[in-house]
Amino acid sequence: MSCLHNLPRFSTLPLQSLKSNSRKPPCLVAILGIVNDIALSRSCRVAVKAVSGSTPSTENENSKMDEKSETYSHDMTAAMGAVTPEDVDKLRSIGVKTIFCLQQDSDLEYFGVDIAAIIEYVNHCGDIQHLRAEIRDFDAFDLRMRLPAVVSKLHKAINMNGGVAYIHCTAGLGRAPATASHTLLMSKRPCFPKLDAIKSATADILTGLKKMPVKLTWSRDDCSTVEISGLDIGWGQRMPLAYDKEQGLWVLYRELPEGHYEYKYIVDGKWMCNKYELVTSSDKDGNVNNYVKVFDDNPNSISGAIRSRLTGNDPDLSTEERPIIRQFLETYSDED
């Protein structure tokens, strides 16, 4: 487990326009991880291969993939911290006052975690709080959209509870580090939060969530269904395109916030790229996706300039922008 001192440093900078709130002493932030971080990183690489790799062609390859999947399940279950009510006492023993869970119900169900029993036990203890703030796994857009609300919820919990805040997703490499702050964690241990999502979420707070129309098309008419996955809906979802007889095209109209979006077409059940649209470079496994960049091309746009600066290679908040971020965290409406 990695512990960082004083989370409020990155999210509660002095306000110029608001009165200061009374706070409990600075807390520690514990970010989910197993004892051997190197072993955890290896487990996560296995998971990517098991989930998104091509279908094995032999029985032997299937057996190897099953073994990797079982190893992943075992290691991730060991990594998640509060898997049983008894684990809550272990967290209490090291001063944890807030358990902050970023997993979805599907994540918990996959690993056999009885979240209702854990929450019931936490409520019975009385000296620790369990909070949930779900973010879809492996989904940079959902991370971007959810991050302001999630960080606000964490910020308020820390101010109220003090002590140690234990933030966890599944592997502790993506959602949890992004929530706690990328820059504070990279010096402590390897992690892989989607930095672009963090930058974009910050820009969204300062400039608003401006959306622009996007049109995606599939030109072949020798198919019965065309869908899209990725984009802003995540890789676990699909969205159908409608066939336009006049244009002779399968068409999807969508309004998207500014940003970079990857997606893939699913034509009669087969995943494929559109060669007439932008295509990413292949990754180490040879996978490629289509992508679209949505941006404000007005050279005189002030919000465009702010977004360009904050999503660049060396982003930094100005003195005026910092209290705006903190005010947002303090006043954001709590989730149900």
Would you write up a description of this structure?
- The chain is an alpha+beta fold and 336 residues long.
- Helix content is 39%, strand content 21%.
- It has helices at 8-11, 37-52, 59-79, 85-93, 105-110, 115-125, 140-161, 175-180, 182-185, 195-207, 302-310, 321-331, and strands spanning 2-5, 28-31, 96-101, 129-132, 164-168, 211-218, 226-230, 234-240, 242-244, 249-257, 259-267, 270-272, 290-294.
- Strands 1-2-5-3-4 form a 5-stranded mixed β-sheet, sandwiched between helices.
- α7 crosses α12 and α10 (195-207) runs antiparallel to α11.
- The model is unreliable at 1-26 and 32-59 (pLDDT under 50).
Task: Label this structure with key terms.
single chain; 336 residues; alpha+beta; five-stranded mixed beta sheet; five-stranded antiparallel beta sheet; disordered N terminus; Ig_E-set; hydrolase
